[in-house]
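S.,

Sequence below, as promised.
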Amino acid sequence: MSFDLLRDFANETNQEIGAFRLNFILSPNKMQRDDYDLEELTWDSIHFGDDAEIEKIPNDKRGIYALAICHPSKVLPPHGYIIYIGIAGRRSDRPLRERYNDYLNEKRLQKDRQHLAYAIGTWQEVLRFYFAPVDDGFSSEDLEKLEKQINTALLPPYSRGDLEADTNRKRKAFP
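The prediction came back faster than expected:
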């Protein structure tokens, strides 16, 4: 027996489906937390890499952002998988649009942020950039704390370190 048919099936299956597999941790307790330092955020989004929509991203506000795999459809139910949470304005006044533009620099991503280069390269066609500006009075420390809180609540697979310490320690128990 040569197993050629099984090898072909395995290769085709990996190309068509397996290459897009991700592990998610979805903790109801963490998602339902309500101890944030602000009452609400106003989220908006653009299709990642769409130059026609870039003007929607504030060029004068810091804030928090998310990369999510989703595809609006008239047939599919609303869905989305948040794969990364970050902030614009980590100890600076750097605006959301400038931070977004960092993710359009392919060479820098490949050099410094390989896990995000892989994610963007894999899902760019169905990737959305969500963003929520914060008021100017919201300090960098508060923004960093909010990033940790949201990362801890959602546990996105590509957010590696910006979690609350206890959750970060426990997450490391899982491959």
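The chain has a mean pLDDT of 93.

Coffee later?
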